[in-house]
Amino acid sequence: MPRFVGRHVIRKDGYSKATGHARYLDDLSFPGLLYARTIRSTIAAGRVVSLQFPPASAGFTVVVPEDIPGRNTVALIQDDQPCLADGVVHHAAEPLAIIAHEDAERARTVEVGVTYAPGTPNFDPQQSRRVFKDVAIHKGRTSDGFRQADLIVEGEYRTGHQEHLYIEPNGVIAVPADDGITIYGSLQCPYYVHHALCALLGLPASRVRVVQTETGGGFGGKEDYPSIIAGHAALVALKSGRPVKLVYDRSEDMLATTKRHPAIVRHRTGVTKDGRLTAIEIDVLMDGGAYCTLSPVVLSRGVLHATGPYRCDHVSVTGRVVMTNTPPNGAFRGFGAPQTLFAAEVHMDRIAEQLGVDPVRLREKNLLRPGDTTATGQVLGEDAAALDVLREAVTRSDYARKRRAWRGTHKGIGLSLFFHGAGFTGSGEVKLQSKATVELTPDGARIRVASTDIGQGQRTVHAQIVAEALGIPYDDVDVIIPDTSLVPDSGPTVASRTTMVVGGLLKRCADDLRTTLGRLTPREYVRRHGPIAVTKQYEPPPGLVWDDETYRGSAYGSYGWACDVVEVEQDPVTLEVRPTKVTAVSDIGTVIFPLGARGQVEGGTAQGLGYALTEEVVMRDGAMANAQLTNYIVPTTLDTPAMDVVFVERPYAHGPYGAKGVGEMPFDGAAPAVVNAIRSLGLDVREIPATPERLMDAPAIAARKGTRR
Amino acid sequence: MSRTTQKAVAFELNGEPVTLRVHPLKRLLEVLRDDCGLTGTKEGCGEGECGACTVLVDGVAVNACLVPVAQVAGATVLTIEGLQGRHPLQRAFAEHGGAQCGICTPGMIMAAAALGPAPTLDEVRTGLAGNICRCTGYEGIYRAIRKAGPRGSKAKARTPRSRS
Is the CA virtual torsion A361, A365, A367, A369 positive or negative? Predict the structure, then answer.
């Protein structure tokens, strides 16, 4: 019987957070601190003719591109984004210079004049001529598949930007050291920042140190962006020789930092009269914004999830992500999959309508089962749980009865079936070569990983895994704060990989140590033999093969499977749609930390409900026009319905204790389930957020056939 | 803010009398964090929308980012530090999923403390409507508040309701 895995434990950071003792970035101070502010472009495209700074006597430290000792780039994938725009502006709110002062108020209010020669921006991805990345997946021959079809259903689906709205804005402190720099920051990926700073500052790895501070939410918004803000603070710190704090206020954070990629997804599907999918053709267009950032991998994940969890012999998926003159879009929980799964699942309900079959029966007929192959040719194992989660969700929610009973009322019900690959896409994990370390101490064990706890419970889950494997109490496992001078590179804290991949490395470390310990306790062992640490490096599970060129093979080590049923009510006067209940059934493999897993599903679902209904980023002249909480509407207590959260555990053979990933999948399903619930009200919505304005414009669903049962 | 405009402001902070020389329009949030060193109160938006800076002034939950310090002269101010880790809500939030990233947690606990013991779920949802949590979907927070309540808490029936 497991003692800690799958059991209730108290999260490692629970008390410090509930008492206010947990120290976030803005809670820290250093002697001689300067406060920095970013000077940003107010145009979306053009040239900077001149910058007018206050006189030197005013005591400001100013950093411009000429002050950059290394390469003026945010090193990530294509290195196309400058840390500070060097004369040419590609988007609004682009950083031009950094100004700092020991008086925070003066730094905040000082005026810096900028003279521009404006250019002509492009805000429409469909008009863009710059493609950051294109991807194609082909299986079978869609022309054959369409010949077998009795009916072809086409549709175009659109999703908007979304703001992460972590409650703690982006912030860092840079502290100059004798021969280098230390960064404290609210961030997800210490080694991403480390890598970017070495390039920017021209420093060797040993002279850059990155320390995570308690992080008040990330959701992907602190995956790539901290490399930029850390670079800015570091440049000021090196120039002034003083510690520098750079913290965004809410408005700047919303205006300048990354968002979820807007997408346009077109489907063309062949289906037989009895509901078998014969051909799937999908085209995905994503708006990357002005620079590449993580767009290629976001697109890749989007395309790999674009068919939804369905089997079909003839599939063609093409996708591209293009440049527009808007702030760069980046990582956000789900990472491309929410956009394409929204399209797939709304399209599925439209196919059911046109065939006159029940949406659940259409899904049952086509969903991926163990032994089926995905669009990339991956053969699914016994843990492919699509049918299990669908049946459980339909039964628990009383879907069929409610759908019948509510017809013609203001109440609606809809569902979505979805899957999510855990870990880096394709060969990503092999390239990352992640490492993790466990050491024995007189008090038990200590975990050294670069994985960050951003609220998702990394410290707790990792400690549970190590305690279980070592056979020592959970309370005796210590998890040190990620600090690149103390932890190996465990890869970034992204892609639902922290439990499955890094947790898996930790289990291997702990298994080895347990053998070493024999019958001794850690205290006895350390006393007799001295300290010992074990480090393990990632090795792919047997049979996991992927080809980056052809997009064939195993796109992910494992997939989670889930079904959301959303119930809604529409106000007949304002047309506003409100969710009233969510039933969320998920397979994430073995659940390690039940309370945390449940919290991930509840929180991800709530964020997805906001994406579906209220969270509209209004872009005007290439900048977010509603960059404030007053009119960017995220769900409050009164907008978030009761949730019935259930786990159907289908263990993954190569995950620690059978665990898969959990963080992202819960986001994927809410939006299509909401829109399918709105369809049950008779409104044809193909774009989110489904605000009352969009609902007013939505056509009624034409002449629906009676649902066959 | 210039020193010449500083004034003495006296109030009770977490049970102790304090007198500070500060600009009377300085935000209570900054006074607490910078002048009093109490960083448990967080800034999430600075516009009174997120509730991360919730503190109790004479027992009423307010957004400290919207309150000029002059307004609390003579009042009692209670912050998360004033609960001293002994309030049942603190333990319940820590142990029952009320806190994930934790940045909204101090404000959320203060707002919940203002609800009094054993609030109904409707009272909780209404009372916390000004406190945004981006992690939990609020369900973990409701569970924590229910756990904190005395035995036989009224907050048992979970009846989802649309906004009235």
Answer: positive
Task: Determine the pLDDT at residue A543.
Answer: 85
A-chain CB neighbours of B155 within 8 Å are: none
Which B residues in the span 57-96 are in contact with A, Cβ-Cβ below 8 Å?
Answer: 79-81, 83, 85, 89-91, 93-96
> A537: how many CB neighbours lie within 10 A of its CB?
12
CA distance B27 to A374: 57
Give the integer Cα–Cα distance in Å for A147 and A145. Answer: 5
Cα separation of A325 and A622, whole Å?
A: 6
Residue B79, both tokens: 């912050």
Radius of gyration of the CA atoms of chain A, in A: 26
* CA atoms of A281 and A221, how far apart (whole Å): 31
Strands (E), A573-617: 577-587
The pLDDT-based confidence of B2 (bands split at 50, 70, 90) is low
A542: number of Cβ within 10 Å: 8
Supply angle C-alpha A289, A80, A73, rounded to 5.
120
Report, in this order, helix, strand and coil percent for chain B, each rounded to 5: 35, 15, 50
Q: What is the mean pLDDT of residues A294-304?
A: 98
ipTM rounded to 2 decimals: 0.97
B150 touches chain A (CB under 8 A): no
Mutate which: A8, A254, A637, A644, vs B, most B CBs within 10 A:
A637
Report CA A382 to chain centroid distance, whole Å. 27
* A to B CB pairs, distance under 8 Å: 184
A136-179 pLDDT per residue, tens? 999 999 999 999 999 999 999 999 999 999 999 999 999 999 89
Residues of B in Cβ contact (< 8 Å) with A457: 100
Report yes or no: B60 and B127 within 8 Å, Cβ to Cβ: no
Q: b/e map of B38-63 (b: 16 or more CB within 10 Å)?
A: bbbbbbbbbebbbbbbbbbbeeebbb
Tell me how many helices (H) and strands (E) chain B has.
Answer: 5, 5
Report CB contact under 8 Å: A216, B98. no
Give Cβ neighbours of residue A548 (< 8 Å, ≥ 6 apart): A426, A427
Classified as helix, coil or strand, A285 is strand
> Among A299, A283, A349, which residue's Cα sits nearest to residue A672?
A349
Task: Give the burial class of A404: count Cβ atoms within 10 A of its Cβ; 0-12 exposed, 13-18 middle, 19 or more buried.
Answer: exposed
Residue A178's pLDDT is what?
Answer: 84
Q: Which tokens hold the place of A586?
A: 């998920």
User: Which DSSP string corresponds to A616-654?
Assistant: ---EETTEETT-STTTS----TTT--EEEEEE-----TT
Provide the 3-class DSSP secondary structure of residue B99.
Answer: coil
Give CA–CA dist A504/A530, Å, rounded: 26
Determine whether A425 is exposed, middle or buried from the number of CB atoms within 10 Å of its CB (0-12, 13-18, 19+): buried
Q: What six digits make up the tokens of A613? A: 């209904």
B78 phi and psi, to 5 degrees?
A: -120, 125
Quote the strand ranges of A502-606, DSSP E. Answer: 532-537, 546-547, 552-553, 558-570, 577-587
Reading the block at residue A329, the tokens are 């879009």
Whether A676 contacts A612, CB under 8 Å: no
Residue B157 confidence (pLDDT): 32
Q: Based on DSSP, count helices (H) and strands (E) in chain A, helices before strands.
A: 19, 28
Q: Which amino acid makes up residue B37?
A: G
List the single residue in A599, A607, A635 with the smallest CB-CB distance to B100: A599
Q: How far is CA A7 from CA A4, A11, A504, A594, in A?
A: 5, 12, 18, 7
Q: pTM value?
A: 0.96
- Which run of H or of E encompasses B30? helix B28-30
**Exposure of B31 by Cβ count < 10 A (0-12 exposed, 13-18 middle, 19+ buried)?**
buried
